[in-house]
Every structure is written in structure tokens, then in C-alpha cells.
Amino acid sequence: MSLTRAERTIVVSMWSKISTQADVIGTETLERLFSCYPQAKTYFPHFDLHSGSAQLRAHGSKVVAAVGDAVKSIDNVASALSKLSELHAYVLRVDPVNFKFLSHCLLVTLASHFPADFTADAHAAWDKFLSLVSGVLTEKYR
Amino acid sequence: MVHFTAEEKAAITGLWGKVNVEEAGGEALGRLLVVYPWTQRFFDSFGNLSSASAIMGNPKVKAHGKKVLTSFGEAIKNLDNLKGAFAKLSELHCDKLHVDPENFRLLGNVIVIILATHFGREFTPDMQAAWQKLTNAVANALAHKYH
Question: Signal peptide: which range, if any (chain A) (predicted)?
Fold first, then answer.
């Protein structure tokens, strides 16, 4: 699975808007993840996950920054996320199902903040892009 | 059996009252077919599904979307007995329509995303959680009679 040129254009152009609110988007995505899929909290026993927590904000920023790295290297996501891929495979070992949950929550956050931009085409492009990112992050699992 | 708290019921029914079911239904089914093109396999008779704009403007997609979301609305009136409410529809989807229940989950998530585009900031994480619980429960109820 790879993105068409049209899909890449959509993702890259929406990113320029998203990046101005990156931290808010990242934090909200995680809040949605932990509210809707509480089992995801099992990977963060060492975190204060309450709304407004500094750790939540810091981690949300990290996650969105990584998505941004993938966007900036949209022609070679595997290379851009190679270290993160190894981290998830050998250290974090987050079950792959959780990438679907996180991706969905990011889509909901984008839809909520940018309703006019989040057309059916944009929804499709982003869903596919996040699916690709998730694939890269789990490709070294076994 | 799924149990919805008073807060969850309020979140669900409160938001539902503001939804234009005809419009949202068409949008939901349309987006399902655009974002997950393999779901088009059930709709060979619907005519032009060749692009996102063709799909979103297709009158058969809109009509069927309205039907589907209206049925979803019935779920909201029967939160305490979803399996009972959807028993017949479950049999239909298995025996006559041959729809993989995974499609119910995909549609449920598309509905959640549409609610997010319509309600923006009002669609908080807690709101989303109540709605994910509902769409999950409806998907399970529709799959319950499969054999």
C-alpha cells in the first residue's frame, strides 16, 4: 500500500494547518484514546494520565511530532521512522491493535478541529497515511 | 449485556436529537465507501461509485445511508435491549446480505468521525467514549445472530 500523489498532497497541505496546533492535537488525541480505549492505559502505568497532566501534554507532543516527521518524509516514511520502528518492536512492544485505536482518535481529533478541511477525500487520505505509519511502526515486530 | 450509565445515555440521546439523520446517513455511508473502497462490494447495483464526489452525490447511497442511520436511531430508543432490537436485522445481514461484521465496526467509526465534524468542540473525549460504546454495542448486536 502506498499513497497516490493526490493523497500525499492532501496530507502535506493539511499538515501545515495541523502543525500550528500540534500540541493541542496531540494531547487531545491521547485523551480520546484513554477515554475510549482504557486498555491503552496499560502501557502507561508510570504516567499521570489525568486531563491537563504535563506528562500527557509532553507525550502528545512527541506523538504528533513523529507524525510530522512522517509527513515531511512522506515519500519514504520507513526511513524517517526507522528508529521509532525499532523502539516499538524491541522495547515498547505495544500490541498492534492499539495503532488502529490511536489512528482513529487522531482522525476524530482532526475532524473535530478542522471540519471544513476534513472532507471525504481528506478522511480517506489520512486514514490511509496513518495505516501506512502504523505498518512501518510494527514491521519489525517479528 | 452492555449497560449504559445515565451520563452515557444523556450524552447519546442529547447529541442524537440534533442530528439530521437523512444528511448524516448519506454522509456516513458515502464515507464508508470512499475511505474503505472494498466495502463497495455490497453495492454493485448503486451505479456510479467511481470517485469520492460521485459516491457522495450518488442518490442511492444517500437513500440507503438514510435507511441505515434511521435504523441506528432505533438502537438509541432501545439501549437496554440492543440484542433483542437487532435480532431480525442480524439474521438478515447474515443469511441474506452476507455482510462481514467487521463492516459494522468500520461504519460505527465513520459515524463517530461524522459526529466530530458536525459537533466540533462539543464532541468531547467523554462524548466520544459514550458513542464508541454505542457503536460497538450495535455492531455486536448485529453480529449476534451470525452462524
Answer: none
Give the nearest chain A residue to B119 (CA atoms): A112
Q: DSSP assignment, residue B33?
A: H
pLDDT tens digits for range B4-19: 999 999 999 999 999 9
Q: Which residues of A touch B107 (CB under 8 A)?
A: none
**Would an 8 Å CB–CB cutoff place A123 in contact with chain B?**
yes
Give A-chain residues touching B113 at CB under 8 angstroms. 107-108, 111, 118, 123
The ipTM is 0.88
Q: What is the pTM of this model?
A: 0.93
Closest by Cα among A142, A137, A126, A140 to A14:
A126
Report the domain count for chain A: 1
CATH code for the domain in which residue A109 is found: 1.10.490.10
Confidence of residue B1 (pLDDT cuts 50, 70, 90): confident
* B24 close contact with A: CB closer than 8 A: no
* Other CB atoms within 10 A of residue A128 CB: 19
Domain that holds residue A130: 5-138
